[in-house]
Design goal:
336 residues, alpha/beta, Rossmann fold, D-amino Acid Aminotransferase, Chain A, domain 1, 5-stranded mixed beta sheet, transferase, inositol-3,4,5,6-tetrakisphosphate 1-kinase activity, nucleotide-binding, EC 2.7.1.134, ITPK1_N
């Protein structure tokens, strides 16, 4: 049976048959919330999946694509604007729109997102947080910014007291593939061949497990993902040079987007993540972001935040459709 009244969307086919669902269960409710979205084609495809579109429609939420070739003020009306586009021009469009349409909720304000465009500033926010002693300890890796001539890196690394191996990332996060590259340097002299500006972070053995903490408003969802394996002193003594990974998310020895078996590693305490998410939510002024967290190998409560991403790949998050649509409904109820 075909779904009636599909929402127009270039990447979604709502004409597919849905097994085990009766027509009375999928009758769309009257539209109450209109969400205008401005996303890249890749983000649109990964986020606005058919299941999310159907569930949203049944809850009275309609997603409408924003036409970037037309003035935003001539489109809508919108209740919410959802966006993830890079560039100063788009930021100015959103900021101008906010000034004249204060009744519209923008997810999220460009000036708040800007904090996550720089890998140094994003983690400094975490470094300033304080936690009760019984919650565990949250830190950031020792890091060093190389903004100009990379040939000075060996001396800078020595002065900063950093030890190899070092994780190397581009300093600026602009949404391009290049900004998501990652290098692992086994000796500091090989770093002189890299292109600045970059940020160096000390590598921390963490059992090859990364915790991706997805945050949507006040909701938190944690999944385990594979990460770089631990390195022993014996292994390091035999290694040199710089190893390149195309993307930070592909840094695992065996890339797997599925949640790892719970027996692999115990999740961080939920109360610790609640405090961390709440504090960053207020300090960053963001509703949609995720944290990449690792636990130092051999410890029970020493955690490091190694990256923060705005509007991450929620399509890979279990049950994101229900969490996200409920979040949108709550936003509007709270506003009213």
């Amino acid at each position: 049976m075909k779904l009636q009244g599909p929402i127009s969307h270039p990447c979604v086919d709502d004409g597919k048959k849905e097994e085990g669902i009766q027509s009375s269960e999928i009758s769309p409710a009257p539209v109450r919330i209109v969400v205008g979205y401005a996303l890249t084609s890749k983000k649109t495809k990964s986020f606005l999946q058919p299941k999310l579109i159907r569930l949203a429609r049944n809850k009275g939420i309609e997603f409408v694509a924003i036409d970037l070739k037309r003035p935003l003020s001539e489109q809508g009306p919108f209740n919410i604007i959802l966006h993830k586009l890079a560039g100063k021009e788009w930021s100015e469009v959103i900021e101008d729109y906010q000034r004249t349409h204060s009744e519209v909720t923008v997810l999220d304000p460009p000036n708040a997102i800007q904090q996550l465009r720089n890998r140094q500033s994003m983690l400094e926010v975490v470094a300033d947080l304080k936690f009760p002693d019984n919650y565990g300890k949250v830190c950031i890796p020792k890091q060093l910014v190389i903004s100009k001539d990379p040939t000075s890196v060996p001396d800078e690394v020595t002065k900063a007291g950093l030890r190899v191996p070092l994780v190397v990332k581009p300093l600026v996060v602009d949404g391009s593939a290049k900004s998501h590259e990652l290098f692992l340097a086994y000796d500091q002299f090989s770093l002189s061949g890299l292109e600045a500006p970059i940020i160096l972070q000390e590598f921390i053995n963490h059992g090859g497990v990364l915790f991706k903490v997805f945050i949507i408003g006040e909701s938190i969802k944690v999944v385990r993902r594979r990460s770089l394996p631990d390195l022993t002193k014996n292994e390091l003594s035999k290694m040199s040079g710089v190893f390149h990974f195309p993307r930070v998310s592909c840094a695992a020895a065996s890339v797997d987007c599925d949640d790892l078996d719970p027996s692999v590693s115990e999740l961080p305490p939920h109360h610790l993540l609640e405090v961390l998410a709440r504090e960053l939510h207020h300090r960053l002024g963001l509703q949609l972001f995720n944290l990449d967290v690792i636990r130092e190998n051999g410890t029970e409560d020493l955690y490091y935040v190694i990256d923060i991403n705005y509007f991450p790949g929620y399509g890979k998050m279990p049950e994101y459709e229900h969490i996200f649509t409920d979040f949108l409904l709550n936003l509007m109820q709270n506003k009213l």
